[in-house]
Design a protein that fits this description.
Elements: H1 12-25, E1 30-36, E2 39-46, E3 49-56, H2 63-66, H3 77-107, H4 113-117, H5 129-143, H6 148-151
Antiparallel strand pairs: 1-2, 2-3
Helix pairs in contact: 1-3
Amino acid sequence: MSRYASQTTVSSDKSRVEIEQTLTRYGATTFAYGWDQGRAMIEFGMADRRVRFVLPLPDRDDDEFWMTPARKNRRTAEQAEAEWEKACRQRWRALVLIVKAKLEAVESEIADFETEFLGHIVLPNGQTVGDHMVPQVEQAYATGAMPAPLAALGPGAP
């Protein structure tokens, strides 16, 4: 199965701007963008919440960019860079898709804001709910025991 937007020619910058414009249209009050080695990040304020998406970027040195898939011939630096850019464009288009889909689900009353963006909501300590909860969920499945924060949500909880 091929990846969504794997052949897109829309630049990463244009996708980021599209996300910002979409967020503004749906009522975001703040927007931030940043990047460092191997990842990009968008963060926005909406519905009295701060939401963060971290977009993992591909490793420039990965063989998928330097070697041709069929014959495993080595690409030139320019060719490898073009393949890497293509992979980055694909990821940004996927992020555009998910942000738009989540916002439209909320707007169409299919889901509420907190439920739709739950894993990406930023907590007061700077972690996202997902950063905080995923290890606890993994532990619960591994041990069969509910961690304290989740146990309160079990049967009989208000």
